[in-house]
Amino acid sequence: MVEPKPTPTLLGRLAPWIRLAVTAGILGFLAGRVDFAQLGQWFLSANPVWLTGALLLTLVSILLCGLRFWLLLRLQKIFLPLLRSLYLTLVGFFFSLFLIGSTGGDAIRLYYLIRWFPEQKARSALAILLDRVFGVAVLLGLTLLLLPATASRLAQDPAFAPLARAIPWLGPTGAILLLLAFVLPGLLPGLPLPARLPGRDVIRDLLHALRDTMHGGWTTLAAVSIAISVHLFSFAAATCLARSLNLPIDYPLAGLIAFLVFSASALPISVSGHGVREGVMIFLFAHLGISQEKEPAIAFSILLWGLGFFWSLLGGLAYLTWRTPQKK
Length: 328
Hints:
The chain has about 325 residues and is mostly helical.
């Protein structure tokens, strides 16, 4: 017997429209305070050599995301060919940029995996979740490592002075938390579960899968190394983009900006972070001593998004040329 689908709540039905309204409101607010002629000059002044470098580094970062996903799938005993993993990554990236929900790309990837591996639905979902977790955890870890190099700049502004004072203990705290993330999964499969717990077998399978992922030997080490490389290349792309606009942003500062902007734009309050990303960038430029004007911050924000948008078109092309997933 097929269980009926739960009726969506009023908030669930209104959520997409709320996001659209928030996005339109923020963009409209910013549009009324921007000199578009000056903004256009910032775009035209971008150095094509540095811009091309940023574009290529972004491509490397996206391809490494596909390699990381491939490794995480192998840790879940899902042996997807590497090219299909890259295909799923590009298609997911394309939908993440255009769908209202921030997890639209993940939903597409899960749909494909379930079509190809219908007997491994739980592990497919866990692989996608861990792909997110690995990315965020490594991004946080790298940001903590780069924070000391930005301490003097942070200390000059009252808004970031508390963060500058917290730097000495943020690093050790982050290291302990990341270490626990690797140790605890090994203990989870031994947890006693009530015999009548709904979905007990699925939960146990997920606990074992999580342990396999965190204690997968060289494959886990490779996945972590690739996750680190993803962000190192993305930070380098942001640095090159800053160079193309002649902005005073070095590599550590680019990493900090990328982390803060990513964290803000990931909040489920707007469409793919549009508007929020630009607003946060304006705030950061003003308080980090980069520029008090809104135009360079918006230009940098749009071009940074544009780097991913350019390569996401490959995902759109892949989706159009392979529209219906076939079982593996």
